[in-house]
Amino acid sequence: MTSYLDATVPSRAEHLWRYTPWSRVHPGSIDTVPKVDAASITSDEFNVSEKPFQPLPTTDIARIFLNEVLQNTTTVESSGKSGHIHIQANSEISAAHLHLSCEGSTHIVIHVKGDAQWFGLALTGDVNSNAQMSVGVINELSSETVLLRVDDWAIHRDALFEHATLSLGGQRNKSDIRSTLGGSNSSLKQYIAVHGHGSRHDDHHIEIHHQQPHTNSHLLLNAACDDRSHSIGTGALTIDDVAQHTDAGQVFRNLLLSPTSRAEAIPELEVMANEVSAAHGAASAPINPEQMHYLMSRGLSKEEATSMMVEGFLIDSFTGLDSTLVRETIHHRLTSHLEQRLME
Fold it and tell me: What predicted TM-score, i.e. pTM, was given to this entire model?
């Protein structure tokens, strides 16, 4: 395993670190490995157990660093169950590795909270053959937290994986989410919604790798950016030469609510098979003045009208979710978040 201190710090010429350099998400000086405390992971519905840490694939600086500081792997056998997992990061510098394994059908909502100065989160999972797993991740960290998140998901033969992220918290967020469709007839549906407010910086890098034929994937990322916030969405879709009859697509949509907000959308496709359907799209636009006028003419203030449009735009990210638990929980947390923002 590569040591972090021996690893090469990536330059901003690398796509993964173009908009959020490693120095901005490392907890301190980049030539040090600080002491990192373990975050708390609990659940009322699932059996949660701790095992010695299982290293992450060392393909990038973030995973190499987390391999140095993580001590335990928290595992959840989620087969046939539904419920919530709570991750609480309250130490100044915290980290956690959660591994999920699914057979049958399961629905999980992961709540990420805490006021840590820095939080490193590794999520890994196996969606085994013929399984159906829906996972929702809700980021409600403190507004001062720096979040470094890495995901590695393996989707096996005839399996279906729904993966949803609602990003509301944290001051600076860097997420590297990777999924591999390693079995034929496997499917991935991935949905991400970002609410940018204040000076939030939220960078999502999504990699989807089709390795077998007759696989399907769909990625949708919606970001609503206000104030001086900045959202970045990059998608790297790879279809191997043996992955014939693949159907894959990715869409990035940005709603800009203020003249000082920014949003980047960079879809990328690498297609080596010839009998596939692969598409991508990206769009950014300001709020519709006619819709704003209509809502305000019905008695809503500008802030209330804006909040209503943001809610509708972000909830639309998850309309394709089959899991009622994940979809309704995300909707409830988003509504509560926007109501609290209105009262501030």
Answer: 0.96
